[in-house]
């Protein structure tokens, strides 16, 4: 059986307030094209279909169109909800959609109920484990504790119990949305540590011939049988070095796995630049990044005037600006809280100016402006009282 493993679409997500719907549409075109060209037997979507529980209408339309196109190909799709999805909203119409080959698994009670997909060697039981919030799913699953490892272990116990009732040789595929030990996170994933330690052992999935994971945005192989597909698009600058792809997985008659990566078309690239503003604006070697989403970290000792406006004149898709001013050798970097201790309002304001200017305090005119602003604030507060 040939499987196409994907996850973490995050439909409706923006990149620093820039819409990514066009790029997401391009990805879904590619997904359908790969499913057709590679003659896949099933598509596995391991959660975080949407970026939030109540997605924008445009994202819902894009999702709806993708399901129609996959159903029209006659390619079964098994899909679980992730921690960004609303399981109730994503699961609406699940029994009707199953008639069209779209198998939604969004309820913990369904963990042990597989979608049975036949091939020339017999049935493949595909089990969907949606994101399992420990405090909400402990009781339905009968887990021993409200912890991620405990609820996933209880869910896999249901999988193994059901598999034991199947004919000998039945191959098992599991979809799960979780943080599995050994995986490398990025800045894009929402924290799931509420409910105890987030990471679960990879051995939790023993018994499955292949486990299609979602949640982490980098494509990763934990074992030959346990893999993350990663997100199809970068959703933070921490993913600038990611190679975005899908897993094309062949499961033979004995359940042996052969997997290869299928690259996803690159949208607008990401670039992380660092240096003084004038250098970033004049360095000819940075020309290849002029069409990229840019995160610039400025190291100027004194914050330049209108830095973003000047930056976007060369890099029109600059979306993030950070400041890490250079400091003189040996210059101490004391905590801001310590500098506040015992200082007057005027001194605190002057210290703040020095803090953001790498030690260069305000001049006479700036001190006068600070004093005037603080005086006006005090007068206004007294009037309010």
- Which structural category fits the helices and strands? alpha/beta
Question: What does the overall shape look like?
Answer: elongated
Strand residue percentage = 15-25%
State the name of the first-level CATH class of the largest domain. Answer: Alpha Beta
- In total, the number of strands is 19
What can be said about the biggest beta sheet?
Answer: 6 strands, mixed
Indicate the CATH architecture of the largest domain: 4-Layer Sandwich
Tell me the domain tally.
3
Low-confidence stretches: none
What are the secondary-structure elements, in order, as H or E?
Answer: EEEHEHEHHEEEHHEEEEEEEEEHEHEHHH
Distance separating the two termini: 75 Å
Subunit structure: Heterodimer of SbcC and SbcD.
GO molecular function: 3'-5' exonuclease activity; endonuclease activity
Keywords: DNA recombination, DNA replication, Endonuclease, Exonuclease, Hydrolase, Nuclease
Protein name: Nuclease SbcCD subunit D
Secondary structure elements and pairings:
Layout: E1 2-6, E2 14-15, E3 18-19, H1 21-37, E4 42-46, H2 57-73, E5 77-80, H3 87-90, H4 94-98, E6 102-105, E7 115-119, E8 122-129, H5 134-141, H6 148-164, E9 171-177, E10 179-180, E11 199-200, E12 210-214, E13 220-223, E14 226-228, E15 245-251, E16 257-263, E17 270-275, H7 277-282, E18 293-298, H8 307-314, E19 318-323, H9 336-340, H10 345-356, H11 364-384
Parallel strand pairs: 1-4, 4-5, 5-6, 8-9, 9-12, 10-11, 12-14, 17-18, 18-19
Antiparallel strand pairs: 1-15, 2-3, 7-8, 13-14, 15-16
GO biological process, one term: DNA replication
Protein name: Nuclease SbcCD subunit D
GO molecular function: 3'-5' exonuclease activity; endonuclease activity
């Amino acid at each position: 059986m040939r499987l196409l493993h994907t996850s973490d679409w995050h439909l409706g997500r923006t990149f620093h307030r820039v819409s990514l719907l066009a790029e997401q549409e391009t990805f879904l075109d590619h997904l359908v094209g790969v499913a057709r060209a590679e003659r896949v037997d099933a598509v596995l979507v391991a959660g975080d279909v949407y970026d939030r529980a109540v997605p924008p209408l445009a994202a819902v339309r894009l999702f709806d169109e993708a399901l129609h196109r996959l159903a029209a190909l006659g390619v079964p799709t098994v899909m679980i909800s992730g921690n960004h999805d609303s399981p109730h909203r994503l699961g609406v119409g699940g029994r009707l959609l199953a008639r069209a080959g779209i198998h939604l698994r969004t309820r913990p009670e369904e963990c042990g109920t597989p979608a049975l997909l036949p091939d020339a060697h017999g049935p493949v039981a595909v089990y969907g484990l949606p994101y399992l919030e420990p405090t909400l799913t402990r009781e339905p699953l009968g887990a021993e504790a409200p912890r991620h490892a405990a609820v996933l272990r209880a869910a896999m116990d249901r999988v193994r119990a059901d598999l034991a009732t199947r004919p000998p040789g039945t191959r098992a595929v599991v979809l799960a949305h979780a943080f599995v030990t050994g995986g490398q996170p990025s800045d894009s994933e929402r924290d799931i540590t509420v409910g105890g330690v987030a990471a679960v052992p990879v051995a939790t999935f023993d018994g499955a011939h292949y486990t299609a994971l979602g949640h982490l945005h980098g494509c990763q192989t934990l074992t030959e049988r346990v893999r993350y597909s990663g997100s199809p698009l970068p959703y933070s600058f921490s993913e600038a070095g990611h190679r975005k792809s899908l897993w094309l997985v062949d499961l033979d008659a004995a359940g042996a796995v052969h997997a290869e990566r299928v690259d996803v078309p690159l949208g607008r690239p990401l670039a992380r630049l660092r240096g003084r503003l004038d250098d970033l604006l004049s360095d000819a070697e940075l020309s290849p990044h002029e069409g990229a989403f840019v995160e610039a970290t400025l190291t100027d000792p004194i914050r330049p005037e209108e830095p973003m406006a000047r930056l976007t004149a060369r890099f029109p898709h600059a979306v993030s600006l950070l400041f890490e001013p250079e400091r003189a050798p040996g210059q101490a970097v004391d905590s801001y809280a310590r500098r506040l201790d015992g200082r007057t309002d005027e001194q605190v304001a002057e210290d703040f100016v020095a803090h953001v200017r790498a030690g260069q305090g305000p001049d006479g005119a700036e001190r006068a402006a600070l004093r005037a602003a603080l005086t006006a604030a005090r007068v206004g507060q007294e009037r309010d009282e």
